[in-house]
Structures are given as C-alpha cells and as structure tokens.
Amino acid sequence: MAIQPIRLFGDPVLRRPALEVVDFDKELRTLVADLTETMLEAPGAGLAAPQIGVGLRVFTWNVDGEVGHLVNPDLTLSEEVQDGDEGCLSLPGLTYDCRRALSVVARGWDVHGEPLVVEGSELLARAIQHETDHLDGVLFIDRLDTAARKAAMKEIRESEWFGLERPQVKVSPHATRGLGL
C-alpha cells in the first residue's frame, strides 16, 4: 500500500473513460489498497482510479465511517433528486452546489470478483455517483448549470494549483492495458 499523487484538473487521464476490470488479481487488490490509503490521507469521501492515473473502473468511498470499494459499477438512480455542496480531490478547494439523484443502487464486484450491491442515499449516493462519473471521464463541474460552470472555471484558472506540472507517477500494470502506455 502506498499513498499516490492525486491527478489534478487538466490531466488528460481524468477525461478518458476507464476500462472494465477483467483481472481480479493481486495488482487489483494493491490498486484498491492504494486508492483507500490515498483517499483516507487526503481526506476525501471517495477516490476513483483515474484520479491516481489508473484507467480502470474502480473506486473507493469513505462516508459516515464506512469505507468500501466497487469494481465495474453499474448504477440505478432514483428519480428523486438532491442538491448539495460537492467538491473533488482533483479540483482542490472548489465546492459548488450540484444536483444528484437522492439514492442509488450500485451493482459491481469486490476485489475478489464476488458480486457486490451497495445501496445508499444522500452523501453515499452522491459519492457513488461522483466516483462513477470519474470512471466515465466526467467531472462534477460538467454537471453544473452554465453560470456555475463559468464561475467554477474562473475559480480554477485563478487557483494556485492550476497549471502546475503534474507529478510523474509509477503506473500500475493494469493501467497499461489498452491505453497505449
């Protein structure tokens, strides 16, 4: 297990759809351990593999003392919605009101390839939707209305971290499959 650098807005890996996990092996278990340790250190409510430079459909969450992970998630969203503050470890210091489904049923797999169903509402539902968006190359600012998105982009451009050189990271062997790396 190792804490990994978190990729920031502007890094192309954050905009690429992640690949399905096909190998439930030691490397996947190491990836989930690294995601968990990095998320807890940050600290954050969730962290997706692309945020540490790995283009696979895996994320972790830490909500109300519950820490978990999901591989290859498939979501069913409620029609009822919630509005609330949302931020992102890849957009440090940025928080905006974002609309999400109030509840979610997430189906996927654990690190051992066993089926997993996670049901959540409010903050857990928000975290699961946010992290699944990362796996699709979508950032929460993409879900903001036009005025809020413009304000967010202005705030990003004026931030101290924007445009900083990104750290070079040792990439998991999983990340090289099908990504041309």
Describe this structure in words.
- The protein has a single domain, classed as Alpha-Beta Complex (Peptide Deformylase), CATH 3.90.45.10.
- 38% of the residues are buried.
- The protein is built from three helices and seven strands, in the order αβββββββαα.
- It has 181 residues and is of the alpha+beta class.
- Helices cover 24% and strands 30% of the residues.
- Strand 2 and strand 3 (66-77) form a beta hairpin.
Write the SSE topology:
Elements: H1 26-41, E1 46-48, E2 58-63, E3 66-77, E4 81-88, E5 91-101, E6 103-109, E7 115-121, H2 122-135, H3 146-158
Antiparallel strand pairs: 1-2, 2-3, 3-6, 4-5, 6-7
Order of helices and strands: HEEEEEEEHH
Cα(first) to Cα(last) distance is 23 Å
How many structural domains are formed by the residues? Answer: 1
Number of helices: 3
Q: What is the fold-level CATH name, i.e. the topology?
A: Peptide Deformylase
How much is the radius of gyration in Å?
16 Å
CATH superfamily: Peptide deformylase
Strand order of the largest sheet: 1-2-3-6-7
